[in-house]
Amino acid sequence: MESIIRDINQWESGHQKIEWVRKNMPLLRQIEEDFSKTRPFEGLRIALSIHLEAKTAYLCKVLAAGGAKMYITGSNPLSTQDDIAAELVKCGLNVYAWYNASQEEYNSHIQKVILSKPNIIIDDGGDLVNLIHDKYPELIDNVIGGCEETTTGIIRLKAMEKNNLLKFPMVAVNDAKCKYLFDNRYGTGQSVWDGINRTTNLIVAGKKVVVSGYGWCGKGVAMRAKGFGADVIITEIDPIKAIEAVMDGFNVLPMEQAARVGDMFITVTGCKSVIRWEHMQYMKDGAILCNAGHFNVEIEVDRLIQNAKNTRKERHNIVGYQINNNNWIYLLAEGRLVNLAAGDGHPAEIMDMSFAIQALSAEYLVKHKGSLSNNVITVPDEIDKMVAKRKLKYWDLNIDVLTEEQVKYLDGWKVD
Ligand code: NAD
Ligand code: SAH
User: Fold this and answer.
1) How many CB atoms lie within 10 A of CB 386?
2) Which residues does 247 contact at the CB level (< 8 Å), separation at least 6?
3) Residues contacting 316, CB < 8 A, separation 6+
4) pLDDT for 185-219, tens place per residue?
5) Distance 154 CA to ligand 2 centre (A)
6) CA-CA distance, 4 to 12, in Å (whole number)?
7) In terms of domains, do 170 and 115 share one?
8) Residue 127 lies in a domain
9) Are 13 and 160 part of one and the same domain?
10) Is the residue at 402 inside a domain?
11) Whose CA is nearest to atom 40 of ligand 1?
12) Which sign, positive or negative, has the C-alpha torsion 318, 103, 100, 150?
């Protein structure tokens, strides 16, 4: 199956970008070295759907170094970088993706990857897993198992598991501590602001920033907004998360009230219709809306487009919509994940940890072939700890080790 990309001649800048992140991804470099010797994926086909930018490309190269035949697509039509795709194809990997794919093209790229008859699936949000279950059940027998990168994907997998629909084991990479505690919080915290700032080129200090969702991602986005000097407002549906937000020093309001005062809005809930058409009626002229959650349904983009009386492209990745009260509302990156659709996503050092977990979880699946149930599988603690220890080692940081006396004390119930 021949690769489907925009232009192989773009490979050189793709190569440079991958070399840059490689220098900053020491955990993956170590795994690449190990895999080149042990070749855990020799003779196996891996289908991968993750935002196709430099860090993901390096993960693909690491898996290929482990003997895998790679079949790669993106996980969002706006986050694929054509030069990265070109470099991967130049290196002999199979890629089916391009920037700004229509929904039809995006679906056909995903289908190509599934038609490779994969033995392992690496997914980001469940598109590959859904497709093979729904349309190609005859290919499921080839699948040893898969790994899921993000919160929303795991919610979908758990729903499948509950209804006995999951037909192979899926490792919940997102739920490893070395993933969500750093990727979702510090990664999203930094890259969302990188995406917003490079797109708008406006000051954050002094603005009222509304963050919807105070989960791991929302905490990071709010923390960095505060660092920029914004006045941060949180909207939540979970009373406990709302208390956390208050104790962290933020205002908490329902969206109906937050809509009236916010200058910038960032949704990161994994839910739908968090900012609705009716909320937009109350917004200030010039309000900026963007999303960092999995799907482009957190903001009612369709209703905004349908009801706007004027539409204007303002800058790359900013479209202005004039609504019935004459106010303008500015939407970034079509309401898709702003950090990836209007930026390069999380920094290399963060994806180094997330993708080390991915690579080691894929190896774990192969090592335990046939002995895992068709469930959502927790990343083994040894993998999580190993990644954390290696990360500290690369930072040249040491921590204390429990003495024998301390181990005894912590294991017992009597104080001697
Ligand atoms: P999480 O479960 O930790 O947090 C989600 C929060 O949103 C929860 O506190 C929940 O109570 C709240 N929420 C749900 N519905 C809401 C609503 N209608 N209004 C207000 N709050 C609501 O999840 P997370 O790990 O923070 O992930 C959030 C989303 O971001 C998911 O879709 C995930 O896949 C995605 N994600 C994006 C990136 C990125 O790079 N942009 C990175 C990781 C995860
Ligand atoms: N398919 C979804 C993707 C979910 S995005 C969509 O509709 O766009 C959330 C995931 O993106 C996170 O779990 C995070 O690990 C991943 N991510 C963030 N930055 C990234 C980067 N630079 N490269 C690859 N993946 C990244």
Assistant:
1) 16
2) none
3) 199
4) 999 999 999 999 999 999 999 999 999 999 999 99
5) 13
6) 18
7) yes
8) yes
9) yes
10) no
11) 188
12) positive
pLDDT band of residue 372 (cuts 50, 70, 90) is: very high
What number is the average pLDDT over the span 1-28?
96
Query: What pTM was computed for the model?
Result: 0.94
Residues 134 and 223 in one domain: no
Which residue's CA is minimally distant from atom 12 of ligand 1? 213
Q: Pocket of ligand 1, candidates 79, 257, 268, 337: which has the most ligand atoms within 8 Å of its Cβ, to mutate?
A: 268
Residues 214 and 300 in one domain: yes
Provide the domain limits for residue 83. Answer: 8-175+346-394
Count CB neighbours of 369 within 10 A: 14
Residue type for 207, please? K
Q: Identify which ligand lies nearest to the alpha carbon of 189.
A: 1
Nearest CA to ligand 1 atom 18: 274
pLDDT digits (tens, 9 = 90+) for 83-128: 999 999 999 999 999 999 999 999 999 999 999 999 999 999 999 9
For residues 71 and 129, membership in a common domain is answered with yes
Q: Which residues line ligand 1 (CB under 6 A)?
A: 150-152, 180, 184, 188, 212-218, 235-238, 241, 268-271, 274, 292-294, 337, 339
Whether residues 197 and 219 share a domain: the answer is yes
Instruction: Please tell me whether residues 104 and 193 are part of one structural domain.
Output: no
With the most atoms of ligand 2 within 8 angstroms of its CB, the residue from 22, 25, 51, 113 to mutate is 51
Residue whose entry in the numeric block shows the structure tokens 């993933």: 179
Residues 144 and 250 in one domain: no
296, 318, 336: which is the final residue of a domain? Answer: 336
Taking the CA of residue 188 as reference, the ligand 2 atom at the shortest distance is 18
- List the CATH number of the domain containing 372: 3.40.50.1480
Helices 216-227 & 188-200 angle (0-180, nearest 10): 50
Name the residue at shortest CA distance from atom 42 of ligand 1: 184
Question: Is 409 among the domain residues?
Answer: no
pLDDT at 405 over 80: yes
The C-alpha atoms of residue 231 and residue 23 are separated, in whole angstroms, by: 37
* Residues paired with 202 in a beta bridge: none
Q: Which of 391, 267, 273, 280 is nearest to 339 (CA)?
A: 267
Name the residue of 148, 149, 151 to mutate for ligand 1: max ligand atoms within 8 A of Cβ. 151
Q: Residue 53: CB within 6 Å of ligand 2? A: yes
List the residue whose alpha carbon is closest to atom 13 of ligand 2. Answer: 150
- What separation in Å is there between the alpha carbon of 227 and the centre of ligand 2? 23
Q: Provide the pLDDT for residue 178.
A: 97
Cα of 162 from ligand 2 centre, angstroms: 25
